[in-house]
From TrEMBL:
<keyword id="KW-0223">Dioxygenase</keyword>
<dbReference type="GO" id="GO:0051213">
    <property type="term" value="F:dioxygenase activity"/>
</dbReference>
<keyword id="KW-0472">Membrane</keyword>
<feature type="domain" description="Aspartyl/asparaginy/proline hydroxylase">
    <location>
        <begin position="192"/>
        <end position="351"/>
    </location>
</feature>
<protein>
    <recommendedName>
        <fullName>Aspartate beta-hydroxylase domain-containing protein 2</fullName>
    </recommendedName>
</protein>
<dbReference type="InterPro" id="IPR027443">
    <property type="entry name" value="IPNS-like_sf"/>
</dbReference>
<comment type="similarity">
    <text>Belongs to the aspartyl/asparaginyl beta-hydroxylase family.</text>
</comment>
<dbReference type="Pfam" id="PF05118">
    <property type="entry name" value="Asp_Arg_Hydrox"/>
</dbReference>
<keyword id="KW-0560">Oxidoreductase</keyword>
<dbReference type="InterPro" id="IPR051821">
    <property type="entry name" value="Asp/Asn_beta-hydroxylase"/>
</dbReference>
<keyword id="KW-1133">Transmembrane helix</keyword>
<comment type="function">
    <text>May function as 2-oxoglutarate-dependent dioxygenase.</text>
</comment>
<keyword id="KW-0735">Signal-anchor</keyword>
<keyword id="KW-0812">Transmembrane</keyword>
<dbReference type="InterPro" id="IPR007803">
    <property type="entry name" value="Asp/Arg/Pro-Hydrxlase"/>
</dbReference>
<dbReference type="GO" id="GO:0016020">
    <property type="term" value="C:membrane"/>
</dbReference>
Length: 369
């Protein structure tokens, strides 16, 4: 590298290096002159830069500065978030056994599970989750949820016997045992258009019953008489990978539903089978924030659903919507020749739960929280 001076050689300054010590005052003066020359050049450079900025459009500079600030804030906000990646069914299967998924359905193994915790500490746990959500996002729109959590014990204990959800009651929601198809019109139409698709996948699954008593993936539920089987694709907000692989088209169909509950413990999707002579005794669902949708796949005579004391019958290819926080029961009083009653069941949001409330409830009741 070759250094080239910006100006003519300053031999007077160089000669000072060989000046006798008695001339040291003159040497100091010459060095100050040299430094002054260097600082003048630096000052000119800074002045040129400032003038260049002044020549720019002030509005453009402010806009760029604001965008930079927003970008830094966004990076900070995203960095604080816990990632919730969307993973494939294959990757879910690898972690299934470690998380208590056996034989295709979920066994709860945690004493801290919100849905399985029925003691006085539940309200504090829910309120803690709500505060954590509000700190991370906002309190806006949380009034009804806050009211429900703070007074949950009073709501559950004072509810009439006809409607008494076991875990969480959201106040000020319209109450009715059954809902019209228009309550969730889009999702009802999607399910009914795909009736044959779901039915074909069920029939393929059901053939396995001829080979063994309870094929893998099916769950037998407790009933006083008869047999009630369920095949879960989503169980308490958790995807069941093995089952989803057996019903790929039905599983993909869930993604096209606008109001399907898939991110909290109150969300389920399954095929439900009642053999002839089965009685499902009266019981309550866990919450009133959802409506349960039954798409009839096979509906022989003698089958009936009773919700809040009002009986209804299923129809093949048609959806039946009801609030399972009401006292409800189901019967199949047909003969063996009639075959089983089969419905595809999926939980949808109550139409009067606002979008902000849905997001908060997904956070508060996230699986495993």
């Amino acid at each position: 590298m070759v250094w080239a001076p910006l100006g003519p050689p300053r031999t007077d300054c160089l000669n000072l290096l060989h000046t006798p010590s008695k001339d040291s005052p003159n040497m100091s003066l010459e060095w100050l002159v040299a430094w002054s020359w260097s600082l003048d050049g630096l000052r000119d450079c800074i002045a040129t830069g400032i003038q260049s900025v002044r020549d720019c459009d002030t509005t453009a500079v402010i806009t760029v500065a604001c965008l930079l600030v927003l970008f830094v804030w966004y990076c900070y906000h995203v960095g604080r978030e816990q990632p919730r990646p969307y993973v494939s069914v294959n990757s879910l299967m690898q972690a299934a056994d470690a998380n208590g998924l056996q034989n295709g359905y979920l066994y709860c193994q945690s004493p801290e599970c919100v849905r399985c915790t029925h003691h006085e500490g539940l309200n504090q746990k829910l309120y803690h989750n709500l505060q954590e959500y509000a700190k991370r996002y906002s309190w806006s729109g949380m009034g009804r949820i806050h009211k429900g959590i703070r007074e949950q014990g009073r709501y559950l204990n004072s509810r009439p016997s006809i409607q008494k959800p076991e875990v969480f009651f959201l106040p000020d929601l319209p109450t009715t045992p059954y809902f019209s198809r228009d309550a969730q019109k889009h999702d009802v139409e999607v399910l009914e258009r795909n009736f044959q698709t779901i039915l074909c996948e069920f029939e393929t699954l059901y053939k396995a019953f001829s080979n063994c008593s309870l094929p893998q993936g099916w769950k037998m539920n407790s009933t006083p008489s008869g047999e009630w089987f369920t095949f879960y694709l989503v169980n308490q907000g958790v995807c069941v990978p093995r089952n989803c692989r057996k019903c790929p088209r039905t599983y993909r169909l869930l993604g096209s539903l606008r109001t399907c509950i898939g991110n909290n413990v109150f969300g389920n999707a399954c095929i439900s089978v009642l053999s002839p002579g089965t009685v499902i005794t009266e019981h309550y669902g866990p919450t009133n924030i959802r409506i349960r949708c039954h798409l009839g796949l096979k509906t022989p005579n003698g089958c009936e659903l009773v919700v809040g004391g009002e009986p209804q019958c299923w129809a093949e290819g048609r959806c039946l919507l009801f609030d399972d926080s009401f006292l409800h029961a189901a019967f199949h009083e047909g003969s063996a020749e009639d075959g089983p009653r089969v419905v595809f069941m999926v939980d949808l949001w109550h139409p009067n739960v606002a979008a902000a409330e849905r997001q908060a409830l997904d956070f508060i009741f996230a699986p495993g929280r």
